[in-house]
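Fold these two proteins, one after the other.
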Amino acid sequence: MKQESKTGVLGYGTDAIKDAGKFAIKTESVSLRRGTSKITVDISRRREMSQSPHYHKYDIARYDLHPGYVFPEFLQSLVPAGTPEFVDSGQRYVERMTRALFYFKQCALIGPSGTGKTHITYLVAELTGLPVWEVNCGLQTSSYDLIGRFIGLGKENWVDGQVTSWLRFGGLLYLDEANMMKQDVATRLNPVLDTRGHLVLTEKDNEIVTRHPYATLIISMNPFSAEFSGTKPLNAAFRRRMSVWVNFDFESVGDRVSQQEVALLVKRTNIDENTAYKIIRVGAEMRRLYKAGDLPYGPSIGDLIHWAVLIKDGSDPLSSAEETIVALTSDSVEVQGDVRRVIESVFNS
């Protein structure tokens, strides 16, 4: 069986509108032999963007991010697999992010730690079949790490950085903690993210690397505040290049308890629904205290799942909480006492 893929070209930014409705077409040749006769039939079918079991749960089929194009085999290991589904209460984060990448090629996610920004980025990449190039923009990350450098003596052994590799081969560049990025790094990215769409490698004889037609970008960040050490206001020029901003928040906060989170907890851990509801209630109250400035951390759904796993294994809720969300929240004895009181008030009621 032979498989061929037709390739197409996608312009910059909103030129994606021209290709709406286009899909990669795979042609499979099937041969049937009967006696001395042989019949060969070519069957053409549309390429699905994703093999993810969650693909059809989201309304993204019309947003093919690489129509007519299949990424090279050596990039397939960078395409995420097995990413859990993302639940929300009607915000349609997956669809909005995919739409932004389709029309503008880049978008920004902003929200507190634990709201699922990295999780959903990997899910979008899996659903759309994009290899991921991930960069944590910490204070130790230099432009050399992102752009590339010569290794050893002389100028024979140049090694591309993550950004340069992304420009050459396409896929999804994920810049995590973008508002911790050094200024020199942000400046180098500006011509990549506007209509010029290229990077000049001043370190390498001024080679011009043009942005791949299917190179998309997502940046994520926590809100700028003293709470998130190392964050700073995003460079204005860099900020203007983000066409769409998606704000994230916790699903359950205070008196608002998301039934989707309860159902997810039951599904992921097989815990009973009553216990799952109480765990989400504890998480919701801790998130309320966190947003009010009374706790240093609000638990993510992943943190609550870890707690539920230990309960399902046979530990009682209070002792299993000690090993998970109590110790996770802070080293402070006073803060840990506040968390215990929240847990006891819910589970002893």
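Now the second one:
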Amino acid sequence: MKHKCPICKTVTDSEVHKDFPFCSERCRGQDLGNWASEKYVVSEPIFGEEEPAEGERKTILLDLDKSDDHES
């Protein structure tokens, strides 16, 4: 699989580069540093930030019978 390195944009190949999707250990380390210094952030949490009470579980209900408007 070919992809561009997220740091330097060099073309990488999953069969050749052991640090895929990065082109090198240096770019992998720089990306980790960006996360550690909070240069990257997740925009919004998927769930509310409040913690459930002990023993309480969060449940998501999906309506699988509902038809999708994009299906033909």
